[in-house]
Amino acid sequence: MKYQIKIPSCIFGGEGSIENVKHIIEKENAKKIIVFTDKGIRDTGLLNLLTNLLDEINIKYKVFDNLASEPSYQDVEKLMEQVESYDGDFIAAIGGGSVMDAAKLCCVLKNAEYTVKDLLNDPTQAKKQIKTVMIPTTCGTGSEATCNAIVAIPEEQSKKGIVNDAMIPDYVVLDSQMIAKLPKAIVAATGVDALAHAVECYTSKKATPFSDTYAVASAKLIFHNIREAYNNPENMEAKNSMMLGAFYGGVAITGSGTTAVHALSYPLGGKYHIAHGVSNAILFAHVMDFNKDACEDRLAKLCDAVYPEMSAKSMEEKAQYIIDQIADIVKVTNIPTDLKEFGVKMKDLDFLVSAGSQQQRLLVNNMKELSLDDIRSIYLKVLK
Question: What pTM was computed for the model?
């Protein structure tokens, strides 16, 4: 078995680590910075932590903050039209997964002859045009570590990932100040998304010793800290652990890949605009329960690593314990798990089954093959 993993070349962590942006810009000899964020981040004042540093070193920059959450490829195309008019030579992204994904697409699209739509059809065309630093403001998407960018495709009422190594960020800043005041609902949704990355990558057909190392490290940090980070927002140690766990989960994705949880969640985001972390949380335990007989040994091994006190239990008990912990985390963090709460109706089932079955990029990673009836059965569990 041959395997590899690709990660950002320089990662800074810890409270106050955003100060390193000054050194990064100096090292890269950047003259004009393209800053990606969204209006929510601007309103919280987090953007100021970055722009104040840029002002300190008298560097020119332009902020682009009119990006929709969970953007479509057309949204990215519109953003690129604005970005092309600014001759920036370095990208700084401060935000959640949507902001970072847009920045990663920009890093391969700026001054390029191909478009986002071209990359949807053939992602191998992407070439890095401009370097990036990612500053995540949630504790979950892992986008700061990956070579993936997810966009909605409205005409298909679904989402698709554009994947190319050229999009792996050059620099990452994991500064816990960014999540100090993160709303509890976002701690929950992004945290469960990160946990899904860890568990799915560990139970993926493409798992390798490299990806396993990061997936286990991610799972340990998130299983043991997400409830505390949610219940006690002042506990910065727990939040630091969540941020690190999310990054490790992102690294695991680059070496392995997510599976049916993410595959079946894409139509929920694409058509019903359910937040990515929430749609994963709704499906997470149900998909792992379906997969259990095909990856019981892997789930049990993960349980040994995360919950060593369970070591005397049987393989089946350990695998079930992991699934039960996932379900409990979703419950404790008050993530809604009934699709009807989001306006999804029983008449939508055929669409979900069809759209979910088309996510072959991820379904091929799943340890257990899913028939159309299997997919239908999983969706029915959350269409109560």
Answer: 0.96
Q: Which domains does the chain have, with CATH numbers?
A: 10-179 (3.40.50.1970), 184-382 (1.20.1090.10)
- Taking the C-alpha atoms of residue 313 and residue 315, their distance in angstroms, rounded to an integer, is 7
The DSSP line for 70-121 is: S-BHHHHHHHHHHHHTS--SEEEEEESHHHHHHHHHHHHHTT-SS-HHHHHH
- Rounded Cα distance, 336 and 342, in Å: 9
- CA trace torsion 9, 15, 16, 18 (10° rounding): 30
Residue 294: CB atoms within 10 Å? 15
Spatial distance between the Cα atoms of 355 and 267, rounded to a whole number of angstroms: 6
**pLDDT tens digits, one per residue of 240-257:** 999 999 999 999 999 999
Q: What is the per-residue pLDDT across 89-100, written as a single tens digit (0 to 9) for each? A: 999 999 999 999
CB atoms closer than 10 angstroms to residue 231: 13
Distance, in Å, from the CA atom of 110 to the CA atom of 77, rounded to the nearest integer, reads: 11
How far does CA 109 lie from the centroid of its chain? Answer: 21
59: left (phi over 0), alpha (psi -120 to 50) or beta: beta
Per residue in 260-295, pLDDT tens? 999 999 999 989 999 999 999 999 999 999 999 999
Other beta carbons within 10 Å of 222: 30
What is the enclosing helix (H) or strand (E) of 156? none
> Residue 240 corresponds to which amino acid?
N
Nearest to 196 by CA among 149, 130, 266, 129: 266
The C-alpha atoms of residue 200 and residue 338 are separated, in whole angstroms, by 22
